[in-house]
């Protein structure tokens, strides 16, 4: 048993060490600095909400917007930068209302970074336009809620109270804008509020629609950060699970039909990635909740100008992220509409352009007409560039063109008409545009018949700003981090264009304009025509092959090219992580930039950049997030797996040597956040298995074997067989895996990058003349929802194979369940040693004497549970009383005579086994008790209606009282009693195996049933119960055989 304990904890230690220190993003977030002020609105009182004494509503202001919402005489400062607004004051917000919802133990002040960046962007760029009437943009009035750092993730009733309060708060906020003095009379009054939710605040935001006090249309734009949309982070409270089920049911049907209540709602989920060890990025995936036309999930490492991972808290204060979110919110709001935001299609287009910019952008056909200029070629210095050679700027030494000249120069590249050339690629460290030294033009020849010679145009009609250039992290040789401040000056970011030539229509030339040295340094620009298929390599591999030999690709790409892609369609399980080593030796040509890598996943919009990849001896971490184990698999457009896209200087003819290996140690940590509840469930499973073996032996006439001895015996004889059973169940479940739903039917057959997939939904639907609701993403969503509804309405809808054990997974991971089981055995050994040591040490201090007034104590405890304290408090008291009973039983056994010693020791061993079970039930009760104590600290004494159930605690109280009175469970050699005892334990074992991890809160209620049966067995030996039992047995025998009269 000692070896099992050591092995289990060594494995557990390695798993947590891997989770904390391996395959995680660099912490590159920069702080956001501001001078915030908060105004608490006392006018939102008990007349408007029942929770005014528990929560508070505040209004945010910072150094960019110090407009006082009320006259200064009606303000009272009661904390640092926090003021109260008199109840009688008329609050005068003049912007667009937005509301921040903090998460579990979150602060109302956490929104200050995003609010400050939004205010900064507006007042530095748009405020003057508003004064001149040139823009409909307005500043955002950020309201925020003070939940007193309530533990909302631990208690479902608190979530419901927060949701009810927020609907009241939204109604109150909207009422502040109805006064004619407070708004532009030419603009409509606001009818909705923009919502920003963090962590569990995002769940509260989604639950607003399910509450009875929700005002239809008051919420239509929700942005969540690090929110566990799919499953609760801790599944120990049944009410939280019920809330999730209610939300899922409502949102599943909310987008159905033309009048769906959620048709105009957009939901954006931003996940932090592998730095967030509180909420799994997998749980932030909303692609099986919301159609692509209404929302998506994106990781912070994918957001342009951010490109940084974040943990659970830094996702709010990280300046790179806050700046993008703040700017996006300003662009989304629009005071011309009563809903205060742009229509859904425009809204989603802005969200996609700010959060999902891909690397295959096409012409921006929907924007305003581009500036056109006629260029006489003879009047400007120019160079014709052949399509085969491509353009490298600045030219090598020896060229006739001097990049230090102030004169403008035009590089003209004819669009090839060869069928094997289909893409134009460009990479530069210039921002491009009128304020940049370099710009890109798309041109047509005005005088085709008047050319002086073939291929030499004389007059060009050129359009600026036609090709979409997306930002990318720069990769100069001296830089090693894919993270920047977000400023777009040259050298801090790259710009990349990838344009399909078939979309250029009548354009015959692509020209690069150099405005000369007066506009800045030369920097670099590389442009070339290429064939996308030739630059793409697809490698089919297997998990076993990767584990044994890895993947080695030599001479990649086959010929020098600016962009090359490696697709690995079989790498699609997020539990495995990899290390990529890149080698490039012998390149003696000075490179303009170091090789750059972007990793993309096909399950969510998750891109991760790595710069200077050829100078990293430790290799590049390759990891990604995937679908949740208990839900249908959702694939974004394109093939499954991952895509590795490389940017390299094509002037260096030396290819890359790639070596991809599975990071076995780094992969161990991925199971922690995905299967965090399995430790508790399997630990409880080991305890139930041990109890079953103890009662089985006890009912056969043997003594009640001590818990530790029986555990040791099971380790040697039974547990290895049980591990094989778990492995078999997991393997069978993988063969009956859940279906995969894919957003398919793309308008073109070429696979897309993660970012560009979202754009295909919009542009594809436009091209066909259909509405966005009939678009690509909605069709796949409808297919998945209809299948889900059909299953829920079937006769056996309560049997969900995907909810069993660890959820559906690849057959390769059959070993996870038995591995967790072995870890659980080690944890039970430790728990038993600690609890046994606690009782032994306490026995030397306590005695068995004392005045007992248990009847009065029990009645008082029941009254308290029914009126004031939650039943979880009574359970903790019961555990403490049971500890005393264990100590007393030990003292009695140690001093008992020889004739009574065996009985006394049997009772002590029985109590110790029950003590282990009670101890493992504490995680099911302590979280709610923490919430209750927290409420007392803020002077909120309202009882929890769902936690004052006497039937939830009465069996435990009666059992503990009976034990304190010296009761002992009797032997039940009778087949009926023994069958019920074994049947209950077997039921608990089967449930824990099949659904314990998914529905962990059922552990407490199954244990309650077991305790009720132990009480029945104890009453069986009581005098009054014996007579009652005999009467029933005799009556049963009389009914089961023919009477003499019938004969």
UniProtKB/TrEMBL annotation:
All copies of the GPI inositol-deacylase PGAP1-like alpha/beta domain together span 94-331
**Key word Membrane present:** yes
* Cleaved signal peptide residues: 1-21
* Localisation: Endoplasmic reticulum membrane
Molecular function (GO) terms for this protein are: phosphatidylinositol deacylase activity
Q: Where the protein is mainly located, per its record? A: endoplasmic reticulum
UniProt entry tagged with the keyword Zinc: no
GO cellular component: a single term: endoplasmic reticulum membrane
Its EC number is 3.1.-.-
Record's bilayer topology term: Multi-pass membrane protein
**Membrane spanning residue stretches:** 677-698, 719-736, 811-835, 855-873, 910-932, 952-969, 976-995
Sorted alphabetically, which keywords does the UniProt record give?
Answer: Endoplasmic reticulum, Hydrolase, Membrane, Protein transport, Signal, Transmembrane, Transmembrane helix, Transport
Top-rank taxon: Eukaryota
Some GO term, biological process aspect, for this entry: which one? protein transport
Q: Which residues form the GPI inositol-deacylase transmembrane domain?
A: 792-1018
Give a single Pfam family match. PGAP1_TMD
Q: What does this protein do?
A: Involved in inositol deacylation of GPI-anchored proteins which plays important roles in the quality control and ER-associated degradation of GPI-anchored proteins.
Belongs to which family?
Belongs to the GPI inositol-deacylase family.
The name of this protein is GPI inositol-deacylase
Q: What is the lineage of its organism?
A: Eukaryota, Fungi, Fungi incertae sedis, Mucoromycota, Mortierellomycotina
* Primary gene name: BST1_2
